[in-house]
Amino acid sequence: MQDTTLPKTLTLGRPDDFHLHLRDNAALSAVVGFTARQFGRALVMPNLKPPVTTVAMAAAYRERILLACGANATFDPLMTLYLTDNTAADEVARVAESEFIYAFKYYPAGATTNSDSGVSALKNVYAVLEAMQRHGVILCVHGEVTDPSTDVFDREAIFVDGALQHIVRDFPALKIVVEHITTKEAADFVTAAGPNIAATITPQHLLYNRTSIFTGGIRPHLYCLPILKRETHRQALLKAASSGSSKFFLGTDSAPHAKNAKEACCGAAGCFTSHAALELYAEAFDASNSIDKLDDFASRFGAAFYGLPRNAGTVTLQRETWTPPDDFAFGSEKIVPLTVGRSLGWRMTDL
Ligand code: DOR
Ligand code: ZN
Questions:
Q1: Which of 29, 94, 108, 228 allows an S-S link to 55, with CB 3.0 to 4.6 Å?
Q2: Which atom of ligand 1 is closest in space to residue 107's alpha carbon?
Q3: Has 253 been annotated as catalytic?
């Protein structure tokens, strides 16, 4: 029997997604509406092919996103540039002057999807990091080491203990977002660091652990990077997300890949969650009795870190059991969401 003391609806300030993959062309048109329906803004990742490395490329990509949103959308894409070994310090000055670029994204070369052009050694970007610190430009970090001999479950903790410590030590005023954290080590590091260090947390890392990937068979739609970790880490992430600390905020890392690329002998990394992002977060916060903390996590802390005002308006979720579709159109292909085969307990209303 349903507990009648539980709230049946939940109204939040219109939230922001501070980590999103929108892709390009037909894929972009297929997915952007899901995010624009729920979120006022999203920080758009630059790992296209070729990567978005200049202000001019980001401006053109932003126009394509706005076009794909249709004429009436109020959705505001916040752009990022892809940091490479060859990023010029001048580009940092141009980003600082830009009105629509909010960060550089640091991918260690080879860490994940379309990261081949990423940074091959930290020292290669030291001059650029110094310029970012000076100009107040934010660095978003994919925090994993890439040495193939390092166990995939250890890659984040080793990055936090090594490269990340070095960056924070050498650039103490640099604003850093440790993206999609997955471990207790990362959560503890961010908690202990200064106010210029924050982190995003995805819905999949709040809801699932590494055993979920292998429950009843291999579940490719739960495969992303950094990979899901042990239950103790999931618990640490839930604690951080619901702690009320403004250092932790919403970033879905929704990363669409065609069904064929996921359900393959060598499946692509990335979970698609934009179709029900808020519902998934509501479920995670609800299960840990902290639904009252979701508004700050989803709608306030990220905007504050990025120096943005809160969005106008609200969104409302209601307690309702429903099952999202098993797939969605994705250009000439299909996309299968994280939620395939299961129901959800919250649903956003289009009031
Ligand atoms: O699982 C992932 N997919 N992790 C990333 O860092 C990139 C993303 C993608 O672009 O598909
Ligand atoms: Zn990502």
A1: 94
A2: 6
A3: yes
Give the CA radius of gyration of the chain: 19
Q: What's the pLDDT tens digit per position in 291-307?
A: 999 999 999 999 999 99
Whether residue 113 contacts residue 49, with contact meaning beta carbons closer than 8 Å, is answered with no
Residue 214 and residue 272: Cα distance in Å, rounded? 18
Token duo for residue 5: 């003391």
Cα–Cα distance for residue pair 292/285, rounded to 1 Å: 8
The closest of 232, 287, 276, 238 to 254, measured between CA atoms, is 276
d(CA 280, CA 264): 26
Q: Could you give the CA distance from residue 137 to residue 103 in angstroms, rounded to a whole number?
A: 6
- Do 281 and 346 form a contact (C-beta atoms < 8 A)? no
| φ, ψ (nearest 5 deg) of residue 273 | -130, 0
| pLDDT of 115 | 85
In a 13 Å sphere around the CA of 306, the CA atoms on its Cβ side amount to 34
Tokens (6 digits) for 172: 């103490």
Q: List % helix, strand, coil for the chain (3-state, nearest 5).
A: 40, 20, 45
Cβ atoms of 68 and 331 closer than 8 Å: no
Pocket of ligand 1 contains residue 27 by CB under 6 Å: no
- Cβ neighbours for 291, distance < 8 A, ≥ 6 positions apart: 7, 10, 282, 285
Give the residue-averaged pLDDT of 345-350.
95
> Which residues are near ligand 2, the ion (C-beta closer than 5 Å)?
253
The predicted model scores a pTM of 0.97
Centre of ligand 2 from the C-alpha of residue 112, in Å: 9
Tens digit of pLDDT for each residue in 218-228? Answer: 999 999 999 99
Instruction: Answer whether 112's CB lies under 8 Å from 129's CB.
Output: no
- Is the pLDDT reported for residue 235 higher than 90? yes
User: How many angstroms separate the CA atoms of 149 and 55, rounded?
Assistant: 36
Q: What is the residue with the minimal CA distance to atom 3 of ligand 1?
A: 270
